[in-house]
Amino acid sequence: MAQPKSKRVIKIILFLGTLISMFYVPWPIVIAWIKPLPSTIQEQVDAVADYGFDGIIVYVDQKGEKPAFYTAGYKNKESKTPADPKSLFKIASVNKLFTAVAIAKLTRDGRLSLDKTLGDYFPELSGRIAHADQITIRMMVQHRSGIPNYTDTPDYWVHPKDSDEERLALVLDLPAKFEPDTDYAYSNTNYLLLAQLIARITGDSEFAYIQKEILDPLSLKHTYASVHEVNMDDVMSGYYVGYPHDLKTQDVGMLATADDLGKFIRALNDGSVFKDRKEQDIYSSIYEFGHTGLVPGYQTIAKYDQDLDAVVIQFTNTVNFQGYNWNMSEVMYSRILKILRKKE
User: Fold this and answer.
1) pLDDT at 19 over 50
2) Is 343 exposed, middle or buried (0-12, 13-18, 19+ CB in 10 A)?
3) C-beta of residue 29 within 8 angstroms of C-beta of residue 326
4) What CA–CA distance (Å, rounded) separates 16 from 161?
């Protein structure tokens, strides 16, 4: 018996829909995900070119074992310089962990209050940032302020600003994304303002406080505030897909070696970065214990896996905001964790 015409039409539409959906499947990610898992981390890292990256550094600190480094690809592709585990790398938003620890320390010392408002500390911003008199420091740390993100302004990374004053000016007098503490929206402006708050309270730069209270006690000698403080030959090159020039001279915040960052993530998670339990509890109430970072040319994943009792840091130096680039870095990272678990 012949099918009604309407049913045949529906089947054809569904079939065409399936074909179209298959066309839009991110096949590079799927293929990378389903490939057989290699037996060692180095074998996985050696596949870096298949993931679209010019170079990679991986650091693994698993309790009871000596920290291990794995590299592949290039520190600088023009000179064909191999990836170096001691290279400095731009850690991008991972620096928010340092800022949040600094806020917890100042709170513990009674030098600031998480429940005071942006307007309390920056009265000049009342009327320039929506709800400044309702947004608390806690909300800013937790990205619940509603303050617009300056890096979301049109074409920001085409013409990035050179100073915090210029960056802040991009969002002054703009409407809030939402009423304070009613939603979550990641905003770099929150942490720009928190850095200025730390400087205002301490009378020195945010990084000077981080150096004194975090880096020096942990003996972290290879973490820096900016590219202007380092030997550029020590910095891993960074690339953007389709852009021909090395991005390593662009000043976009803190740099660190994988070793320094790994030690910091370990100290953050085992509590040794804190003076006492009260300070640790303050931090636990406001922020997270691992982070990712992304700026043109540089991608960082810095996390602690409790089940493995392992810190895994991954640096990759090729970026494409419009493609699958970030997803591929996450696939690489997840496969490294799977190899560690399989070894367990």
Assistant:
1) no
2) exposed
3) no
4) 47
